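Task card 7
Instruction: Convert sequence to structure tokens.
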Amino acid sequence: QVDLLESGGGSVQAGGSLRLSCKASGTTHSSFCMGWIRQGPGKGEEVIASMNDARTTYAESVKGRFTFSQDKVENTLYLQMNSLKPEDTSVYYCAAARGYCDLGADFYWRGQGTQVTVSS
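Output:
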């Protein structure tokens, strides 16, 4: 069973930083692809980062500002978000997929989400 629990959301001014955490269980097998997905108000979902043992991929909208990392001992994922912009305001979801790993992966498992609000 896969369980994902995000934390670390909040409100910040433009230019600020936040770090999201995702405590994962049931995803230690190397076949898993982990990711972060966001959905802004009135917008569709956007996969912003994916990671497996081979590579980490970022969407152009966050490249150079966000960093996806993981602590394999604690099975915890992190999303460090710097230089935040009002358009980054979204609910952020930790996600997992099996097999193919890229921004287009089938992220079947999702956490409950955490709200990030960036004010101008």
